[in-house]
C-alpha cells in the first residue's frame, strides 16, 4: 500500500520559513517524480514545485519561484519543500504527490496526472 505522509506544516508569521517533508512508502521511490501542490481556502488546487526522479531537474510555480526549494533523498524516500519569505497568500493545505515517470524535465511534471497523493499538511501564514 502506497503512502505519502506530509509533515512540517503549521502557523508562521509573514516573512518566516517552514520546511515541509513528505515520507513515501510502499513504492519504488526512485522510479517516481515528486511534486508539491496546494489548495488555498476557496480556491482550486495548484502546482507548487516538482522534482524529477533523479533530482536533476526542478520546476516551480511563478508564485513561489525564488522563495521555495524542492529536494529529495532517494535513500530516505523523502521529498522536502523549503519555503522562505512566506506570505499570507501561501496559506493553504500542501499536498505531496508521486508520478511514475522518468522524464528528465521537471517542467513536464506539473501537467501530468499524479499516481498517488498524500493527505496534506496545513500551512497558515499570518500577516
What profile does the largest beta sheet have?
Answer: 7 strands, mixed
**Number of DSSP helices?**
0
Number of strands: 11
- As residue ranges, the low-confidence spans are none
Multimerization state: single chain
Order of helices and strands: EEEEEEEEEEE
Distance between the termini: 40 Å
Output mean pLDDT. Answer: 97
Form type: globular
Give the percentage of residues in beta strands. Answer: over 45%
Helical content (DSSP H or I, runs of 4+): under 10%
Please tell me how large the radius of gyration is.
13 Å
Classify the secondary structure makeup into a structural class: mainly beta
What's the topology here?
Blueprint: E1 3-7, E2 10-13, E3 18-25, E4 33-39, E5 45-51, E6 58-60, E7 68-73, E8 78-83, E9 92-99, E10 116-117, E11 121-126
If you had to describe this structure to a student in words, what would you say it looks like?
- With 127 residues, the protein is mainly β.
- It is 0% helix and 49% strand.
- The protein has no helices and 11 strands.
- Strands 2, 4, 5, 6, 9, 10 and 11 form a 7-stranded mixed β-sheet that branches. The chain has a 4-stranded antiparallel β-sheet with strand order 1-3-8-7, with no helix packed on it.
Could you give a quick summary of the protein structure above?
Helix content is 0%, strand content 49%.
Q: What keywords describe this structure?
A:
four-stranded antiparallel sheet, seven-stranded mixed sheet, 127 residues, mainly beta
